[in-house]
User: Fold this.
Amino acid sequence: MRLTTLTLMRRLARLALLAPLLPLAACVQGGTPRFDARFGQATRLAMAQQVQDPAAAGNTAPANGLDGASARAVMERYRASFAEPNGQVAPPVSFLLGGNGGK
Assistant:
């Protein structure tokens, strides 16, 4: 089997492209066991810190609070407070330029 110059050049070009990737092959074998062992630990810790009572899911007693009609009225008043806060209209903004009445 005889290699032509063109075939040899193609093989050398492929080798030149793959040569920089060879050192990376060593990284793939070892993996990252130090990091893999702790993967997700920060997320689990943050979730655990946000749970006040982990046994709350087993509590079947009703929650103390407002009945449905009262809660609905409170929410309606809350939402309406943004349309007209305290039932008052904001005073217009005025700017005086020049000072001293323009004299």
